[in-house]
Design the sequence.
C-alpha cells in the first residue's frame, strides 16, 4: 500500500512541479524513486519529526504541495503541536503520510502503535483524514490529496496489503457498499482491517446471518449522506477499526447519528475499547487479542443480532 501511494505521488510529480517530499530519516526502499527523479524536491531532515512538520509548513506557504513521511505515531503524535500551529492554523498545503498505522509495528510494542492518530488528526480544524484499506484506495488517496487544497492526513499500512474489492463508480470521499445483501446489520470499516470484516461477513453468511459491508476510507469529512441511509436501513451498525473507538471511525459515526434520534439502527463500535495495546505480538495476533480478527468480529455481530 505505501509503495502504491508513493509511486502515484512520484508519477504525479512529473507534471506537477510543486510536489515535494520531506522525511524524517525514514522511507528507505520506498522514497528513492522520488528522490532520484526530483532531488531538489526531496528533503531528509533527520530524526526530527517536529522539524519535518515545521519545514513542510514553511515550504507549503511558499506555494508548494508537501508530503511528510514517517511511521504512524511519529508523524502525528510526536509533532502534534507543529501540525496544529505551523500547518493547520495556516491551512498549509501539507499532506501528512503515516505508514504502519494501527498494529503494523505490533512486535515493537505500544510506543510504535498508532491507535490514537485518527482521533487526534480529525479534531484539528481543516484537517481531512483518509484511511485507505487497499492499494487501489491508496492510489485514489494520492490523487485526492494532491488535488485538494489544505492539510490532509493519510494513514497507510505497510504489509503488502491485497486488493480487497472491485471498485465500480467509486469515489474516495464516499462510503462504498461492497455487498448487495438485505441483512439486519451493516459493517462499516476503514483501513486494512476491512479484510477481516470481509472474512467475518463470510463466516456469518455461512450461518445464514447477512451483514452488509461498507468501506469508509474518508473518515473526515465523513460521508454523512450515505451514513444517514445506512442508519435508516439497518437494525444494527457496527464500526470496525484498528484504532481506539474513542474519536476514530466509531466516534465519528456516533457523533453524526446522535443527531438523528429517530434512527432505526443501534450502533456498536469494535476496536480498542479506550485502552492501550499493552501486549506485544504480530499484527494478526493483536487483532485477535483486541477483538478485530475475522472470528472475533463475527462473534461480536452474532452475539448481538441473534
Sequence:
Amino acid at each position: 500500500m505505501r509503495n502504491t501511494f508513493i509511486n502515484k505521488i512520484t508519477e504525479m510529480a512529473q507534471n506537477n512541479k510543486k510536489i515535494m517530499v520531506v522525511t524524517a530519516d525514514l522511507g528507505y526502499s520506498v522514497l528513492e524513486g522520488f528522490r532520484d527523479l526530483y532531488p531538489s524536491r526531496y528533503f531528509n531532515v533527520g530524526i526530527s519529526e517536529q522539524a519535518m512538520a515545521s519545514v513542510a509548513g514553511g515550504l507549503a506557504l511558499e506555494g508548494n504541495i508537501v508530503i511528510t513521511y514517517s511511521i504512524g505515531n511519529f508523524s502525528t503524535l510526536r509533532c502534534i503541536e507543529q501540525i496544529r500551529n505551523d500547518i493547520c492554523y495556516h491551512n498549509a498545503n501539507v499532506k501528512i503520510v503515516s505508514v504502519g498505522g494501527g498494529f503494523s509495528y505490533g512486535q515493537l510494542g505500544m510506543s510504535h502503535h498508532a491507535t490514537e492518530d485518527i482521533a487526534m488528526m480529525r479534531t484539528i480544524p481543516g484537517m481531512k483524514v483518509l484511511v485507505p484499506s487497499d492499494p487501489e484506495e491508496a492510489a485514489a488517496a494520492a490523487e485526492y490529496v494532491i488535488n485538494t487544497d489544505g492539510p490532509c492526513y493519510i494513514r497507510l499500512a505497510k504489509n503488502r496489503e491485497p486488493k480487497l474489492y472491485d471498485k465500480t463508480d467509486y469515489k474516495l470521499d464516499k462510503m462504498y457498499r461492497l455487498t448487495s445483501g438485505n441483512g439486519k446489520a451493516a459493517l462499516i470499516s476503514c483501513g486494512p482491517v476491512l479484510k477481516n470484516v470481509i472474512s467475518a461477513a463470510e463466516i456469518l453468511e455461512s450461518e445464514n446471518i447477512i451483514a452488509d459491508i461498507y468501506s469508509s476510507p474518508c473518515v473526515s469529512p465523513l460521508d454523512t449522506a450515505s451514513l444517514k441511509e445506512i442508519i435508516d436501513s439497518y437494525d444494527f451498525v457496527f464500526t470496525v477499526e484498528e484504532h481506539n473507538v474513542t474519536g476514530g471511525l466509531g466516534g465519528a459515526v456516533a457523533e453524526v447519528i446522535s443527531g438523528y434520534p429517530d434512527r432505526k439502527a443501534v450502533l456498536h463500535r469494535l476496536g480498542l475499547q479506550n485502552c492501550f495495546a499493552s501486549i506485544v505480538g504480530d499484527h494478526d495476533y493483536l487483532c485477535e487479542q483486541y477483538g478485530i480478527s475475522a472470528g472475533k468480529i463475527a462473534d461480536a455481530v452474532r452475539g448481538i443480532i441473534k
Observations:
- The longest helix spans residues 49-61.
